[in-house]
């Protein structure tokens, strides 16, 4: 048996722990400062939309390609995972693509994922809402994070993993926290944004990108994301109806470098106005006053300059496999990244 400690109980840590715990040769402990059920500005995963909406050919593609089949299987076959099927509609304005707006979504009408997601199609011009120049539509999934994260915890526990709370000041300290009481053979680092502050890692390339949302009781389908807004380069417009009574998440913002945890009510008003403009049905045609707000939220995307870090290294004689820095795609790349972690764990333990 190899003793493994996974640090982090966000979607990255829990998915990695789930895959590792399927191997009877691995004895897995999850250690985290924050757990599903917590809402904290240092803990990104509960705040996400969360859906599968890839961008065009960038470094994320392979991770996302390897993730979609599992999310799709869960949506079809495992209702208790809190994932359901939803069409995804991406609306582009040429001016956003030219200006490099934060959400300059798939300008490429022939993207890599067109053969990965079912029912991929280019929306005819005649079917686009006014003001948009092109559109893409495909089958996708939307994840109710309040159900899915506890579901992952349950799957890990069912596989024999143990979970405990701890706040680490150095990644190598995790090696002494295995539930067996013996030193861990390997540590997996899934600390998200806090990888920027954790001793032994201190990754200055990881920065917060602030996303403000409004969760409403109203429901409408399909999910919609637009390439930009007229309210500034760091404001977004997206609508995601979550599974199983999770309401609909309206977004958002993309503010680089901000750690501000409090929602801004003027921003919230703009988010709701944009949502009912692009999707009047959401509020039964009544505009913003037709929305029933559950809560305002702020989450910080763990964006890493140069991309996600999935690699192994020795820190103070302890093998560490890193899996952090997933920015705004931690769910839609979760299985792809975790599968690579499993490979790296095997390589490190064999070294
Ligand atoms: P986190 O969820 O932050 O988890 C980090 C874990 O590490 C926590 O348990 C924390 O307590 C623990 N930890 C950290 N430091 C320590 C320490 N020193 N000691 C002990 N424990 C520690 N992604 C998508 O795929 N699709 C979407 O639609 C989507 N929408 C989003 C919308 C918003 C508004 C936001 C903010 C994000 C969105 N994302 C989306 C991105 C996604 O939420 C993140 O990429 C993902 O949640 C990152 O997960 P993580 O597990 O790496 O980090």
TrEMBL record:
Keywords linked to the UniProt accession: FAD, Flavoprotein, Oxidoreductase
UniProt-recorded name of the protein: FAD dependent oxidoreductase domain-containing protein
GO molecular-function terms, A-Z: D-amino-acid oxidase activity; FAD binding
Cofactors named for this entry: FAD
GO BP terms in the entry: D-amino acid catabolic process
Binding-site residues, D-dopa: 238, 301, 328
Entry-linked Pfam families: DAO
Domain FAD dependent oxidoreductase intervals: 4-344
InterPro entries noted in UniProt: DAO, FAD-dep_OxRdtase
Organism phylogeny: Eukaryota, Fungi, Dikarya, Ascomycota, Pezizomycotina
Gene Ontology CC: one annotated term: cytoplasm
Oxidoreductase as UniProt keyword: yes
Binding positions (FAD): 44-45, 191
Keyword Flavoprotein recorded: yes
Family affiliation: Belongs to the DAMOX/DASOX family.
